[in-house]
Amino acid sequence: MSKLQNFLEQALQEKNRKDSAHLGNRSLYIGASDIAGCPRKAVLARRQPVRFDTRTLLKFARGHAAEDLVAQIFQAGGLTPQREMELIHPDYPFLECHVDFHFRFRREDGRGRIHVLELKSTDATRHQELRPDQYHCRRQASPKHGTRKE
Fold it and tell me: Quick one: how far is CA 147 from the chain centroid?
């Protein structure tokens, strides 16, 4: 491995650590990504923390860059969503999630709805075109599902 490659891999590890610092100690709670994924993998990751490879770290970095791009697009349209809103289940505080974007889109009559937007990075080699009938919208957060941590 060249010195440059070694440097870049170490820098990516540090970038990932800094980008994830706001999530706190992930071993102390079960996050939305844990629930959505394989339960065995989530438990093993708590007991034996994983050091992500360069390919995975690059995928994470692309995801963070995409979040910044989406935020800029929202702002250009005059909307400033709250980013990384932390939601904690009121009865099960070990269940928490960090929502990428949370905003209220108001109509001209002043009424509006709360929207949640969560972005996910994918492996580009496994990409396939989605048909319109494959898109899904889920209500992922509501006052009864969790409260914002102050």
Answer: 18
Going by DSSP bridges, is the β-strand pair 112-117/96-106 parallel, antiparallel, or unpaired? Answer: antiparallel
Domain span including residue 80 = 3-148
Query: 43-71: per-residue pLDDT in tens?
Result: 888 888 888 888 889 988 988 899 999 99
Q: Which residue has the tokens 């993998």?
A: 41
Total domain count for the chain?
Answer: 1
With a cut of 90, say whether residue 72 has pLDDT above it: yes
Question: Cα–Cα distance between 85 and 114 in angstroms, integer?
Answer: 13
64 membership: H or E segment, kind and range: helix 54-76
Render pLDDT for 23-44 as a digit per residue (tens, 0 to 9).
888 778 888 878 777 888 888 8
Q: Which is it for strands 82-88 and 96-106: parallel, antiparallel or unpaired?
A: antiparallel
14, 51 in Cβ contact below 8 A? Answer: no
Gap between the Cα atoms of 27 and 33, Å rounded: 13
